[in-house]
Amino acid sequence: MTATIDIGGVKIPRTAALAPMAGVADRAYRLMCREYGAAMVTSEMVSAKGIVYSDRKTAELCTVTPEERPMAVQLFGSEPEFMAKAVDIVLRYEPDIIDINMGCPVPKVVGTGAGSALMKDIPLAAMVCEAAVKAAGSIPVTVKIRSGWSKDENVAPQMSKALENAGAAAVAVHGRSRDQFYSGESDNSVIKAVKDAVSIPVIGNGDVTDFASCERMYRETGCDLVMIGRGSYGRPFIFEEIAAGMAGDDYTPPTLEEKMEIMLRHIRLMLTLSEKPEELAMHEARKHAAWYMNGYYGSAKFRGRCYQLSSYAEAEELAGEFIALQNSRAEL
Ligand SMILES: Cc1cc2nc3c(=O)[nH]c(=O)nc-3n(C[C@H](O)[C@H](O)[C@H](O)COP(=O)(O)O)c2cc1C
Question: Can you tell me the distance from the alpha carbon of 141 to that of 169, in angstroms, rounded to the nearest whole number?
Fold first, then answer.
């Protein structure tokens, strides 16, 4: 039987959650991952100040559909008063959890003092968290962090303790520092140090790409839940693999034909959920199509063709060609 963990009253299977990914993990992506058993999903990050001043994209980013639950809505911001106001607005969308982004390394976010810049000012980070916790009432607030600002300074345990004291219901830790961006390897010892420092649930994150690396993260860190980002690119079924592994069951990955069917279903879902005309919505589907074709003979050429797709019919045709190419190779 799969174990469950409890984040402020929200029960989550101890398998693997989908990480927040702006520009990637939109509603269609989250629904695909939930369908394959992602334990929890998180929205793309939303600016706290942005939603307080304008609600142009708020509904699109914050809406939680029943099939996505349990779902967290993620906010970023560095001013406690704006965080509190933003939480108040987000609560209208009834998220299961509110998550605060204190790990994002991108200059646009860090430049405002938010994201991983808060790892340089732990007292302020705690105030932002506390303001969110107070505004959120009975809805749990979690925080996502990295190891620290620089690789030489692991502030994650100390920061996590401060966040726990500020009322955070869980902390998610990516085992890289801000200055590493996505280079090098994510360090599981950072996650373990956080686990040793706090009593709230710890979510481990970084470089999990299959059941073996997921199991290793659980074993090496003692974390309560694993979170997967890039390892799910073109592979929403990774969550099925992990759920099977955690339950001690065998797992057979989808065949190429099944993968192409999953890709086409993902694209159809994107087109259905998008308010844009097909051609524009297909622009957003291109990178996903390319990811589904990774790792096969002739992938590079096909990925290039994915970046030219402008209709669903073209995607269907390309999938057919891709299958034919792989089958002709198999017959050699
Ligand atoms: C394209 C992309 C977008 C991301 N957007 C967010 C985000 O909105 N909020 C956040 O906390 N982390 C974001 N991240 C970081 C991921 O959630 C995750 O911490 C990181 O990718 C490491 O996990 P992985 O090795 O499993 O991908 C993003 C990462 C990527 C690659």
Answer: 6
